Structure formats: C-alpha cells, structure tokens
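Supplementary Methods. Inverse-folding protocol.

Structures were first reduced to a discrete structure-token string of length 292. This string, shown here, constituted the complete conditioning input.
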C-alpha cells in the first residue's frame, strides 16, 4: 500500500503551452529530494483534460523514467469513456506506472451501477492496481460509499481518492469495513489531516506542489498518530490549502511554482494565468508556509 503525501503534480508548460520536459525532470527530482512519498502524473492538477493522448502518455513516461523506481508513480488514466480509460491504463502499465488513478466518468453522469460496471470492466481488462477517484465538484458525479464498498471487493481495485472534502463522507467510508489492503486517500488538503488521523492512508495533494517537505511531514505525523505535530504543520499550511483554490486548480499552483522559479508561466487554454488581483493572496500564503 502506498501511504503518505502523494503530489498531484502540475505539468510544466512554456509560454506557448507546450510541455516543458526539462522543468518536469527538475520538478520530479525536487519532490524526491523533499521527501514526497509518491507522484500522481497527469491527474486533474496535471491538466489531463487538455493534453492529447500522445502528450498524456509522454508525461507519464517521463515521470516514470526520471523517478526510476525511487518512489511510486501513479498515472492518471481516467475518462468518461470506459474504452478510452482501458486503453490509457493499458498504456500506463506498459510504460511502467505503479498504479493508475481513475476519475469518475464526467459529464455523462452515470448511475451508481454504471460506475460499478465501468470500474469493474477496467479492472478485468488491465492487471495494474487501480485507485478510484471521486471529485463530484469537478465531474458532476458522486460515487457513494456503498458503491466504493462493492468495488473494493473487485480484484485489482486497491484504493480511493475521496475529494468531496466532507467530514461526514470520511466517517461513512471508514465505517464501511473495507478490506485491510484497501487504501483511502484524501483529495482535499484542508481536511486531509483529520482524515488521516481518523484512518485514511495519505493525501493526494495540491499543496504538496509548492510545500512538499511540509506535506510529507504532516502526513507522516498524522499516520503515526502524532496529532499535535500534524496540527502544528497544518496550521502553517492552512492558507495554502485555501488560497491555492482562489481560482480553479491548477491556476494558482502553477503561478506559485513560477514565482518560486520552479516552472515557466505556461498554462493551457481554457485555463489562463492567475488574475493579478489574487497575486498578493497567493504570495502571502507561500510566505506563511515558508515556501518563499
């Protein structure tokens, strides 16, 4: 089981919107040096929605190659087409990813049985550990705990990223009696500390993009049951948890990383650079966390 702080990595881009692979290499090395426990390549924060298939797989391949088995790499391979999700997951396995993260199908809004059959079909088609990803605020589709319980029995489905940010949902998932090897990850930095202290296994994190060492330390403290240390670190990061979402993710995170000198300023339409009205807010959050 993969535990700890798993960064939902941005995809660096130049001013034209082209993927900047040299910056990606440097970003991956920085995360390993800072103690990040795993990397999610080409998830929501990695702008998966606007990378074409060749770019998508090229980014995963580059991250896998640079990581060179030092930490786990989880490939974002979800789609609202079951066939496309299978194709991308097969490709991620061939590239060498350690697991795949599959967002619930967006826009077409399947019922719960459709979600169950979608994920079961992928698991039956690809021999790669699969992590479910529920983010109803993005997809318009909420995977309910009972569906998670059913899917946790399917061989090959090994975990869930729950990004609803709802403490009641956290409690409901923990009460399901899921198999011992089934991992629960927070997908909401603001509530991740409490979720881990209650029994979650880690955080797939936006904040870790700009404060990787502190997010690793926060998760490690929470996993060990050191609530006081986890709370102290979380307090230092609280402005980042909030202000990296003053505009849709990853707009603020990419602007912050550019300010830190880690990536170029590029972002791909229909996303645009951070509105100058928010520059002071994000800069102050970075300063409070000691990131600048």
């Amino acid at each position: 089981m993969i535990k700890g702080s798993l960064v939902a990595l941005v995809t660096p881009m130049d001013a034209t919107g082209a993927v900047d692979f040299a910056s990606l290499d440097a970003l991956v090395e920085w995360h390993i040096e800072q103690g990040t426990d795993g990397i999610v390549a080409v998830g929501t924060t990695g702008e998966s929605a606007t990378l074409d298939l060749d770019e998508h797989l090229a980014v995963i391949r580059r991250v896998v190659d640079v990581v060179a088995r030092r930490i786990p790499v989880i490939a974002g391979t979800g789609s609202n087409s079951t066939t496309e999700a299978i194709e991308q997951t097969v490709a991620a396995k061939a590239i060498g990813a350690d697991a795949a993260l599959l967002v619930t199908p967006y826009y077409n809004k399947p019922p719960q049985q459709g979600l169950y059959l979608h994920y079961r079909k992928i698991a039956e088609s690809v021999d790669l550990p699969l992590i479910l990803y529920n983010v109803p605020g993005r997809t318009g589709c909420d995977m309910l705990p009972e569906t998670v319980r059913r899917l946790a029995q399917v061989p090959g489905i090994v975990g869930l990223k729950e990004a609803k940010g709802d403490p009641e949902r956290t409690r409901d998932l923990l009460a399901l009696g899921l198999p011992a090897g089934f991992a629960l990850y927070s997908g909401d930095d603001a509530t991740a500390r409490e979720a881990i202290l209650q029994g979650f296994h880690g955080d797939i994190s936006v904040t870790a993009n700009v404060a990787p060492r502190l997010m690793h330390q926060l998760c490690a403290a929470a996993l060990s049951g050191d609530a006081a240390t986890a709370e102290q670190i979380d307090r230092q990061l609280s402005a980042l948890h909030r202000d990296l979402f003053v505009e849709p993710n990853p707009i603020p995170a990419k602007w912050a990383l550019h300010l830190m000198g880690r990536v170029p300023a590029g972002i791909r339409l229909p996303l645009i650079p951070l509105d100058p009205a928010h520059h002071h807010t994000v800069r102050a959050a970075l300063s409070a966390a000691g990131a600048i």
